[in-house]
Design a protein that fits this description.
Layout (H helix, E strand, L loop, with lengths): L1 E8 L11 E5 L4 H12 L7 E4 L18 H6 L1 E6 L3 E3 H34 L8 H4 L5 H23 L7 E3 L2 H21 L5 H4 L7 H25 L23 H17 L2 H29 L16
Parallel strand pairs: 1-4
Antiparallel strand pairs: 1-2, 3-4, 5-6
Helix pairs in contact: 3-5, 3-6, 5-8, 6-10, 8-9, 9-10
Length: about 325
């Protein structure tokens, strides 16, 4: 058994050789339809094929979604198709995003004894004098802790991308890699490292790590946030068993408080790093990051409400209880 859908070009130029209809089996997914259309139009990469809802005109992003379960598609008996252009895998984009800070932080630690003595005369009177503990050319214990915390965070993120995360879509437009990487490379990488390892930075001026209870609080928040974030990521990756296509309402650690507890724990971990480093650059980084996480979180909240209806308990906060 199967069914037939009308196929319509979204753009005027359109895909050459696009059939007017397509025959699909009952269990055909979005990805299956992309492959069939790619074969018919002789498109080298099926990921270039975008399939859109005939009513909302929004792309059907979940490649594992069964087309027969998409009400507007079946009601109108139609899918809209467009060539999305050159694509790059989501996994590769994430790996590139998180790689930047892993390069910049060791780099600035390595060149600190050359870079900062050269630039300090131009900044004298604007920035504090180098901290005595940092003037010797060695990192202070707070700077060492900051380096380890930041490097561990991004190594964790890279490992999660490789072994934990599952992506509903295979690819995104290739041009997006620059846009997506800019945020991490510039704010968490370049600016964060340039500031933190300077002998006149707030981290250098913060004294020894054991000299302030604030450092212990920061480290505790960091460890708590990272472990809980990893737990949520692992849970989400195993929420749908192999072969399952139906979405489920996530429950468990943090989901009773906010829509996206992984974002909540991410913010907690970075607050921990900021308490240790006193870094203005990282404050800017996580402030901008929280804005985007709020937008993504609210998008997920609306999707849950739409898909699960009364079965889903609505959340007022999506990333931080009572705040955002």
């Amino acid at each position: 058994m199967g069914y037939t859908l009308k196929v319509t070009n979204r753009s005027r130029k359109g895909l050459k050789g696009l059939p007017s209809t397509i025959e699909l089996p009952d269990d055909a997914t979005v990805e299956f339809a992309k492959k069939e259309i790619s074969r018919a139009t002789r498109t080298s990469d099926f990921n270039r094929i975008g399939i859109f809802d005939p009513v909302s005109k929004k792309t059907l992003k979940d490649r594992n979604a069964v087309l027969r379960e998409q009400e507007p598609v079946m009601k109108h008996g139609e899918i809209i198709v467009k060539d999305l252009g050159a694509q790059i895998s989501w996994r590769l984009v994430y790996l590139c995003e998180y790689f930047g800070p892993l390069v910049f932080h060791p780099f600035f630690v390595g060149v600190r004894n050359i870079l900062y003595p050269a630039v300090y005369p131009y900044l004298k009177g604007i920035v504090p004098a180098p901290a005595p503990a940092a003037a010797s050319g060695e990192l202070t214990s707070v700077q060492q802790a900051a380096f380890l915390m930041i490097m561990a965070h991004f190594v964790k993120r890279e490992l999660e991308v490789l072994f934990v995360h599952k992506f509903s879509a295979n690819t995104m437009p290739a041009a997006f890699i620059v846009r997506n990487s800019f945020f991490y490379w510039v704010f968490a990488g370049l600016l964060g490292a340039l500031e933190i390892y300077a002998p006149f930075s707030p981290a250098a001026q913060a004294g020894e790590f054991l000299s302030s209870p604030l450092h212990a609080v920061g480290l505790a928040l960091y460890v708590f946030g990272e472990l809980c974030n990893a737990n949520v990521h692992w849970y989400l990756s195993s929420l749908r068993k192999p072969g399952e296509t139906a979405r489920k309402i996530p429950t468990g650690l943090g989901f009773g408080l906010v829509t996206c507890p992984n974002y909540m724990f991410e913010i907690i971990a970075w607050i921990g790093v900021i308490l240790v480093t006193r870094s203005p650059s990282l404050v800017v980084f996580i402030t901008i990051g929280s804005y985007f996480m709020y937008i993504w979180g609210w998008g997920k909240e609306k999707a849950y409400r739409k898909q699960f209806g009364d079965k889903y308990k609505k959340k007022r906060s999506v990333i931080l209880p009572g705040l955002l």
